[in-house]
């Protein structure tokens, strides 16, 4: 891990979306979020992998499905690990499934695809040249990752064994916390804890790495949330570009948020920070979106 890394083992660090038509999807997200996109695959390769950037910093990617994966559009969450092979052993021991064995991705890093016992697929990333998303928590960039699951107790046991996560009760809803993550953030950006407290964040919020939605409809899954400046504007723009507004913009604690499906069906949440909403009650849609 370099001094400039924003991640430690156990923290979601990257997202990408696999798409039947990655070129069309790249165009959609480029227009929606203002990404600059670069296809980093060799011209002779049948697969595509467009890295989206803001101000030159990696944000997310749009790519073809890997061999053996279903040809469906979906957003994928990657968790930073020190050793992808060791993570695979932990997944098996905890009752999960290794969908794709650890593999090298050029000199970028090493990855694997797993599923938890409830069937939610996720990925791990053992970094080399690629150090995860460089820009987060702003318009058009990753804001949060969330697990929707019908089995909270099973998820707590599984992710605790694999990543060391704990369920943190924040009064009416829970989130995933990684012990020591707040210490890392404080060293990286002094004043993190003080700023969180000033905003009225709950105790240990700086340890939070992801959200959890218990009893969500549909199969267990990982979702992604992008930060946006205006949820209403982004929902309208997504519809203009051929996407579908699954849940229209609504107010929730700390945010105004909307759930969108891109033209090929990959679902994501767009969330606008609204501090004056801090005391609103949580809703099912809030957590479902991550």
Task: Describe what this molecule looks like in 3D.
- This protein has helices spanning 22-33, 84-93, 152-163, 181-188, 192-198, 231-240, 284-288, and strands at residues 12-18, 36-39, 49-54, 57-63, 74-80, 97-105, 109-115, 121-127, 142-149, 166-169, 174-177, 208-214, 221-227, 244-252, 255-261, 267-273.
- The protein is an alpha+beta fold and 290 residues long.
- It has two domains: 12-127, 2,3-Dihydroxybiphenyl 1,2-Dioxygenase, domain 1, CATH 3.10.180; 142-288, 2,3-Dihydroxybiphenyl 1,2-Dioxygenase, domain 1 (Roll).
- The strands form two sheets. An eight-stranded mixed β-sheet has the order 2-3-4-1-5-8-7-6. Strands 10-11-12-9-13-16-15-14 form an eight-stranded mixed β-sheet.
- A hairpin with a 2-residue loop joins strand 3 (49-54) and strand 4 (57-63).
- The longest helix has 12 residues, at 22-33.
- Residues 284-290 have low confidence and may be disordered.
Question: Quick summary of this structure?
Answer:
With 290 residues, the protein is of the alpha+beta class. The chain has 7 helices and 16 strands.
Protein topology:
Elements: E1 12-18, H1 22-33, E2 36-39, E3 49-54, E4 57-63, E5 74-80, H2 84-93, E6 97-105, E7 109-115, E8 121-127, E9 142-149, H3 152-163, E10 166-169, E11 174-177, H4 181-188, H5 192-198, E12 208-214, E13 221-227, H6 231-240, E14 244-252, E15 255-261, E16 267-273, H7 284-288
Shape: globular
User: What is the typical, i.e. mean, pLDDT?
Assistant: 91
Question: Counting H and I runs of at least 4 residues, what is the number of helices?
Answer: 7
Strand and helix order:
EHEEEEHEEEEHEEHHEEHEEEH
From the alpha carbons, calculate the radius of gyration and give it in angstroms. Answer: 18 Å
Determine the structural class based on helices, strands and strand pairing.
alpha+beta
How far do the termini sit from each other?
27 Å
The parts where pLDDT drops under 50 for at least 5 residues are 284-290
CATH topology of the largest domain: 2,3-Dihydroxybiphenyl 1,2-Dioxygenase, domain 1
Strand order across the largest sheet: 2-3-4-1-5-8-7-6
In helices, the fraction of residues equals: 10-25%
| Strand fraction | 35-45%
Main sheet summary: 8 strands, mixed
CATH architecture designation of the largest domain = Roll
CATH homologous superfamily annotation of the largest domain: 2,3-Dihydroxybiphenyl 1,2-Dioxygenase, domain 1
Count the beta strands: 16
- Taken together, the total number of domains comes to 2
């Amino acid at each position: 891990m370099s001094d400039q890394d924003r991640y430690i083992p156990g923290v979601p660090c990257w997202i990408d979306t696999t798409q039947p038509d990655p070129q069309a999807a790249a165009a959609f997200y480029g227009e929606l979020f203002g990404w600059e996109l670069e296809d980093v695959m060799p011209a002779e390769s049948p697969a595509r992998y467009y890295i989206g950037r803001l101000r030159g910093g990696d944000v997310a990617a749009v790519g073809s499905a890997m061999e053996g994966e279903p040809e469906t559009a979906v957003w994928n969450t990657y968790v930073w690990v020190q050793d992808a092979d060791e993570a695979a052993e932990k997944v098996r021991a905890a009752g999960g499934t290794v969908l794709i064995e650890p593999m090298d991705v050029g000199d970028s890093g090493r990855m694997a695809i797993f599923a938890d016992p409830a069937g939610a697929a996720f990925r791990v990333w053992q970094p080399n040249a690629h150090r995860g998303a460089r820009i987060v928590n702003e318009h058009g960039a990753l804001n949060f990752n969330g697990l929707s699951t019908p089995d909270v107790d099973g998820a707590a046991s599984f992710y605790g064994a694999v990543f060391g996560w704990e369920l943190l009760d924040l009064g009416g809803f829970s989130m995933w916390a990684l012990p020591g993550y707040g210490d890392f953030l404080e060293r990286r950006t002094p004043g993190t804890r003080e700023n969180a407290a000033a905003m009225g964040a709950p105790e240990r919020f700086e340890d939070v790495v992801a959200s959890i939605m218990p009893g969500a409809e549909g199969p267990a899954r990982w979702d992604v949330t992008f930060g946006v400046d205006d949820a209403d504007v982004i929902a309208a723009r997504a519809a203009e570009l051929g996407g579908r507004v699954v849940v229209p913009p609504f107010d929730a604690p700390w945010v105004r948020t909307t759930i969108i499906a891109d033209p090929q069906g990959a679902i994501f949440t767009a969330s606008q920070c609204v501090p004056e909403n801090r005391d609103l009650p949580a809703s099912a849609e809030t957590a479902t979106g991550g």
